[in-house]
Every structure is written in C-alpha cells, then in structure tokens.
Amino acid sequence: MKIVHVEDNAADADLLKEAFESIGITVYIRLFQDAKEALRSLELEQPENSSSTPDIIVLDLNLPKMDGRELLKRLKQNAQLKRIPVIILSTSNLDQDIAYCYENYANSYIVKPQRFVDYKRVAASVNEYWSSVVALPQSTFRGY
What we know:
The protein has 144 residues and is of the alpha/beta class. It has a single domain (2-125), classed as 3-Layer(aba) Sandwich (Rossmann fold), CATH 3.40.50.2300. It contains five helices and five strands. A five-stranded parallel β-sheet has the order 2-1-3-4-5. Helix 4 links the parallel strand 4 and strand 5 (108-111). The protein starts with a strand and ends in an 11-residue tail after the last helix. The model has no long low-confidence stretch (mean pLDDT 91).
C-alpha cells in the first residue's frame, strides 16, 4: 500500500511507520511535514497516469502554513485527487473537528493513539479495511 502521510511531528510519523512494520505490513510512506508541499506534489503528479499516486492519504489536522482542514477541503475539490481516500489521524477528539472532516468528505477519522500497541492496532485496521475489505476504483490500488 502506498501512503502519503501529512504530519509535522516526526515522532508521530515514525510511530505510524514502525507500527506497520512491526506487524509485517509492507507500506511505502511518503512523508510531508507541510500541507502546502503535499498538495503541490499531489497536484503535479496527475493521479490518473501516475504510479506514484498514493492509495490513501493519512492527514493530521494541526499543521504549519496550511492546516489539515484546508488541505482536506482542497483535496476533495480537486477532480483528480478527490477519489483518494483520506484518513484523518489527529490528536483532536473535538466533535467540531470530527464533524468538519466528515462534512468535507474525509473517509475516516482516527484519534491518535497514546500507546504503541494501539498504533499497531490502527495500522492493522487501516491495512485490512483499505486493502482487503472495501471496493475501490481500479486506478486507486495499482499493486507493486
């Protein structure tokens, strides 16, 4: 699975990567610490033709320059990017943040776990759901 992870906290980014690795799941994670940089890169790739298009985007809300809420909104307004599932992974458990994300077409909202064992559970669930359970357009998962 190819993941774009938009996260400004390097420790949190490492936790997610290590969680996938620790349960034996091979993922290719491209990390962006800045939402503007992530958007620019994704827009330039022309997803319908690019083998580097992610299968999912994991997005933090509290980011510098452009926050995750704005990035989510822009991704879902972009005709080429809106099909890519976006999973919010945030420390916020505020109802207003959760509601905003779903109103702007987030595919899932996960509150960041406190313990590594819970990160592993999140990684396993994300992998199971997005690569085995749901049906997605052919162009979303390309294989390796």
